[in-house]
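Q: For a teaching session next week I want to show students how multiple molecules come together into a single three-dimensional assembly. I've collected the sequence lines for a complex. Could you give me the predicted C-alpha cells for the whole thing so I can convert them for display?
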Amino acid sequence: MRNLNLSELSGLAIGLGRTYRMLEKMPRVSRDEMLAWQLGKIRNLVQHAYLKIPFYKALYSGAGFQLGDLKTWEDFRRLPVVKKDDVVANYPERMLEAGYDLDRLIVSRSSGSSGKVLDIAYDQRAMSTFILAGLRLYRMGFRYLPWHKHLYVYTSPYPLSSLFGLYPLHFVSTLTPIPEIVSALRRVRPALLVCYPSHLRQIAAAIPDKERNSLGLKVISVNSEMSTQLERDELKRQFGCPVLDEYSSEELTRIAAQCLSGSYHIFEDINYMEVLDDSGKPVDGLGVLVGTNLHNYAMPMIRYQQNDLGSIHESKCGCGWRFRSLTQLEGRRNDSFIMPSGKVLSSGFLLDATYEFLLNYRTAIREFCLIQESCGSVTLQIVPDSGWSNEVSSKIAQRFRNLLEADVSFQITVVEACEKTKSGKQNPIVCRVKTVG
Ligand SMILES: [Zn+2]
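A: Of course. Below is the structure for the complete assembly, covering every listed component.
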C-alpha cells in the first residue's frame, strides 16, 4: 500500500472531526435506527454500483434486477452473493468505475486465504473512514491519546506513519525474527501493540516474567489467526494488560473487535454483516459471513462472502454499545509447519512469506499453494503468470530456503491448477506431516 500524500493527509485531518463524531455516535443508536441508516447507505451504494461498475451491472441485470428495485431488506437479500474469485477475475477494469485513476486510489494487495492474489482499491474518503474506525477500535481497549505510541507487527506498513505527528505508528514486518521484535518493543515502548497471536506467544516466551509487566503496554490487539479466550486471558495475565481480538479483512476492512466487557462487536457503521446457510438463506446459528462495506465507492463490496464462518446476535453489553455481537468465529485456521527441530512456523508467518513474493513479483504468479510434504520437504506449487521466469523462481527458492531450517529441502513445481481439498476449498498452506498427540 502506498503512503498517503500531503493532500490526502490534509483531507483526513479535515474530515477527522466530522467522521469521528459519526463513528462515536453510531454504536449507541437503536437497532431500528441503525437498520434504517444502513438500508439508506446500501441503496445509494447499490445504485452507484449498478450504474457505474461493469461487474455489478452485468451481475444484477443477469439476476433480473432493475434500478429502483431495491426498497426493502427483502429486495437486498435477492441480490447475488459475490465471491473472491469474481473479484479476482474482474479486477481492475470491471470492478472499478470507468475513469477512476488507479494512481489516485489506495490499493491493498493480499494473498488472501485461498492462495489467489487479491487487490482491493479504496477511495480517499473511504480510507479516511477506515483509519478513524481503526482509531475507535483501539479506543475500545484503552484511552488512546495522541502521544501514545502504536507498534504493529504486520505484512506491510499502513499508508501513514502518524497524523501530523500525532498517534505515531511504528511498523515491524511479520517476517522479523522474534528477538528483533522484542528489541523494538524495548526501544519504542508502545502503549499499544498489534500483532498475530502466534507472535505474541513467542514474544511472551522471549521476555523475562518480571519485565513483561513493565514494558508500558496498555493494551494488546491480536488479529488474523485464531486464538481462544483462554489463551488471551493467559497472555493478559503475562503482560498485565488486556489482550483483545480483532477481525478485519482487506475486502471489508474493519469487521468486528472485542470490547473490555467481553463482547465481540460488529462494526455496523462500517459493514452490514449477514450470516447465510449453504443455500444463501439467513441463518440464526453458525453460517457463512457475508458483508457489505458501506463506504468504499471506488470498488464496492456488496454481499461479499468472506471465507469464514460465524454467528451474530443482538446483545446488551456493559460497555454501552448497541452493535450486535459476533458470538462465534471460525475459519481463520490455516495449517502451520513443523520444522525438524520441533520449531513451529505459524500459518500467519507462512502466509506473509508468500505475500512477500506476491508483492515483489506482481506479474509472475497467478495462484500458489505451499505444501509441507514431509518433515524435511516443502514444495511450492505455482500457477505461473506472464512475468514468471527462471530468475524469479530461483529468487523465491533462495528466500524460502533461508526461512526454513537448513536440512529442509525446498522445491518449486509449476502446475496448471493448484490442488483443492475434498470439499473443493483451496488452502494456500497445507501441512501433510502427521503429528502425534
Ligand atoms: Zn461491549
